[in-house]
Design a protein that fits this description.
13 strands; globular
Length: 392
C-alpha cells in the first residue's frame, strides 16, 4: 500500500497551547475525578485545544441550530479518504459502514452480531480494561491470549486460545486492540495477516478496535486489519475520537470486510440513533480538514516520548519503558521499585500524581502503570518529578 506519512505541518504543537490553570477549568473526568492537588496523567484525554476546523464545523452547526439526528454518509466518506491518503488503504467501502454511538458500544454491537450468550471472546492482556467489563456485561466469557514478553502478539498462544474457544462447537470472536492499549504496540502487516489466517482456520471472527489508528510514532505505519489478506470476514471500529480529542462528541463507524457485509446489515436500526449528530459533524471535519493539526500533534507526541524516556532515565532509572509505536500512552514497568502489584496507588498517595493502575489491564499488568503523555512537556516533567518524590 502506498501511503503518505505524517510530516511537519507548520502548525504549532497543540500540546504546548494550554496552561495548567486553564486545564483545571475543565469539567471532564480527567480533571474532576481527583482533588486539585493531584496531577492527572491517567484517563485517555489529551490536554489540547480542539483543531480549528472542528471548532468551526461545530460552531456553524450550533449557529444553524443543526442539532437533530445524524444522517448521510459524509463521515464514512471522510474516513475512506483519510484511510486512502494516510494508510494507502483504498478498499474502505462506504456502503459497508454503519454509524455507531462510540467505539466500545460499537464493539458490543459487533460482538452481538457474531457471537451468542456464553460464547468466548479472545482478548490479549494486558489490554484496555473496558474489554473485560463490556464483554462480561453482555454475557460473553473472556478467553485470554496474553501478549508475549516483548509486548507483541504471541501467535502460538493465540492459536491455542482459538482452538480452545471453538472446542465446544459454538461461535467465538477475537476482540483485537490495534494499535494496542496500553503498550502502544502497532501490529505489523505480517502479524495481522497471521491473525487473519488463524481466524479463518478456526472460524473465529475478528472485531478490531482501531480507535488509536491515526496516532503512530514517526516512522511507524498503521495497518488496518481489514486491509490484510484473509481478513474479509472481519469487522472494525474506527473513530476520530482519540486522535482529535473528541470523546465528548460521540460518534464512531463500524466497518465490515466483504464477507461480513451481511452481518453488518443485520445491525438493529435503532443503534444508529445513539450517535450525536454534532459528534458526527465534528469527527467528519477532523478527518477531512484536521490533518495539519494532527501532524503537529504527532510531532509533539514524538517529542514527549523522547522527553519521557530521558526523564525516567534521570529520575526513575528503575522504571522500564519500552518505546511505544503508537497511541499517546506509555506502559511503565515499575516492578523493580518494589511498590507491589499497584504502583499507581503509591504514586497517587505519596506523589499526588494519578496514573492508570496496571492490574486493571489484566494478566501482565501487575507492577505496571499507564501514563498519558498527551500533555505539555512541563506537565509531563512535573508528573515524573512527583513519581520520583513518592520514592523518597
Amino acid at each position: 500500500m502506498t501511503r503518505i506519512p505524517h510530516e511537519s505541518s507548520g502548525e504549532p504543537n497543540p500540546l504546548r497551547a494550554l496552561t495548567l490553570d486553564r486545564l483545571r477549568r475543565r469539567t471532564s473526568m480527567k480533571w474532576r475525578t481527583y482533588p486539585d492537588d493531584v496531577l492527572p496523567l491517567w484517563v485517555a484525554e489529551m490536554d489540547v485545544p480542539l483543531a480549528e476546523p472542528v471548532v468551526r464545523a461545530v460552531g456553524d452547526a450550533l449557529a444553524l441550530g443543526d442539532t437533530g439526528y445524524p444522517a448521510g454518509s459524509g463521515y464514512a466518506e471522510a474516513l475512506a479518504a483519510f484511510a486512502a491518503k494516510r494508510w494507502g488503504w483504498h478498499a474502505l467501502a462506504v456502503e459497508r459502514t454503519a454509524i455507531v454511538p462510540d467505539v466500545m458500544l460499537g464493539v458490543v454491537e459487533m460482538l452481538k452480531l457474531v457471537t451468542g450468550p456464553g460464547d468466548p471472546v479472545v482478548v490479549n492482556p494486558p489490554v484496555y480494561p473496558p474489554f473485560f467489563q463490556f464483554v462480561e456485561h453482555m454475557d460473553r466469557r473472556i478467553a485470554e491470549a496474553p501478549l508475549g514478553t516483548d509486548g507483541r502478539l504471541d501467535l502460538d498462544v493465540l492459536e491455542t486460545a482459538y482452538r480452545r474457544a471453538v472446542a465446544g462447537g459454538g461461535r467465538a470472536a477475537h476482540l483485537l486492540c490495534s494499535p494496542h492499549n496500553p503498550t502502544g504496540t502497532v501490529h505489523t502487516a505480517a502479524e495481522l495477516a497471521a491473525v487473519a489466517a488463524l481466524a479463518d482456520r478456526y472460524g473465529v471472527r475478528v472485531v478490531a478496535d482501531e480507535i488509536h489508528a491515526p496516532l503512530t510514532a514517526g516512522g511507524v505505519d498503521f495497518v488496518p486489519y481489514l486491509s490484510v489478506p484473509g481478513a474479509d470476514s472481519g469487522l472494525s471500529l474506527m473513530s476520530a475520537s482519540k486522535a482529535w480529542n473528541l470523546a465528548g462528541l460521540k460518534a464512531a463507524l463500524a466497518v465490515a470486510g466483504p464477507a461480513a457485509e451481511a452481518d453488518l446489515a443485520a445491525l438493529p436500526e435503532e443503534v444508529g440513533h445513539g450517535p450525536s449528530h454534532v459528534g458526527v459533524i465534528a469527527h467528519t471535519a477532523a478527518l477531512r480538514d484536521g490533518t495539519a493539526w494532527l501532524d503537529a500533534l504527532l510531532g509533539g507526541l514524538d517529542d514527549n516520548r523522547r522527553l519521557l524516556a530521558a526523564l525516567l532515565a534521570e529520575e526513575l532509572p528503575g522504571v522500564v519503558l519500552r518505546p511505544a509505536e503508537g497511541t499517546y500512552l506509555a506502559w511503565l514497568d515499575c516492578r523493580a521499585l518494589d511498590l507491589g502489584d499497584d504502583p499507581a496507588r503509591v504514586f497517587l498517595e505519596r506523589g499526588r500524581v494519578a496514573l492508570s493502575p496496571g492490574p486493571d489491564f489484566g494478566t501482565g499488568g501487575a507492577g505496571h502503570v499507564r501514563l498519558n503523555l498527551g500533555t505539555s512537556p512541563e506537565i509531563l516533567a512535573e508528573g515524573v518529578r512527583r513519581m520520583a518524590s513518592a520514592l523518597r
